[in-house]
Amino acid sequence: MRSAVVLLSGGLDSATCLAWTRREGFEAHALTLDYGQRHRVEIERAAFVAKSLGAVSHRTIALDLSFLSGSALTDVAIDVPKGRAAQEGRSGVPVTYVPARNTILLALALGLAESIGSRDLVIGANAIDYSGYPDCRPEFLDAFRSLARLGTKAGAEGAEWRVHAPLLALSKADIVRKAVAWGVPYAATVSCYDPEPDGRPCRRCEACEIRARGFAEAGIRDDSAEIA
């Protein structure tokens, strides 16, 4: 059976990617990064999701990225923006961007994959409801495939690396529909950038608003513990 390394954050998108990986017939090795994020409750939720969806293994790697300044997700002195009205007219990359996060995540996934003989990486990048993050664009993923080919022993020996982003062109509503159809335990996922310690969402950050809109457009009630 083919194997794949799945980046699993504990959010809805990455959980749906794990379900996709299993449906595609891969043995799934989930990888979660504890990088000092404000929404740390997602780490324990990721463990639940990995077990629920049948991951062969689940590793949580501690790598403190708080020294990378300027992100509201790692610096509690920077407020997470709240309310769609506050977002209107915003341009450029949002303050919730963590410098080079997806590059770091994919590099770790690449190393794990090469060490276990896998050549497939799975990431929940989305180019539609992605909030303006540059490392969620198709161009970035294509560039990382080239990096994997050029920067690994496996690539030098002719192995083909694949970076799967099955949600890349889907709306949040489409992601919600697939999550429900594929049995994702969405009640356990955390989307909020600034949740309470018990995981309750703020309901006002951009991630909460995108999630709420997605469920509403899909015509599905989000009756999870996170939103209720």
Q: Can you describe this structure?
A:
- With 228 residues, the chain is α/β, with parallel strands linked by helices.
- It has a single domain, classed as Rossmann fold (3-Layer(aba) Sandwich).
- The protein is built from 8 helices and 5 strands, in the order E-H-E-H-E-H-H-E-H-H-E-H-H.
- The protein has helices at residues 12-23, 41-52, 84-87, 101-116, 138-151, 153-156, 172-181, 206-218; strands spanning 3-7, 27-34, 57-62, 120-122, 162-164.
- Strands 3-2-1-4-5 form a 5-stranded parallel beta sheet, with helices on both faces.
- Strand 1 (3-7), helix 1 (12-23) and strand 2 form a beta-alpha-beta unit.
- It is globular and about 50 Å long.
- The model has no long low-confidence stretch (mean pLDDT 90).
Tally of helical runs: 8
CATH topological fold name: Rossmann fold
Would you count the extended β strands for me?
5
Low-confidence stretches: none
- How do the strands of the widest beta sheet line up side by side? 3-2-1-4-5
Distance between the termini: 39 Å
Strand content: 5-15%
**What is the element string, with H for helices and E for strands?**
EHEHEHHEHHEHH
Question: What's the CATH class, please?
Answer: Alpha Beta
Instruction: Give the averaged pLDDT, no decimals.
Output: 90
CATH architecture: 3-Layer(aba) Sandwich
CATH superfamily: HUPs
Backbone structural class:
alpha/beta
The radius of gyration over CA amounts to 17 Å
Q: Tell me the number of structural domains.
A: 1
Helix content: 25-40%
Largest sheet: 5 strands, parallel
Question: Given the C-alpha coordinates, what overall shape results?
Answer: globular
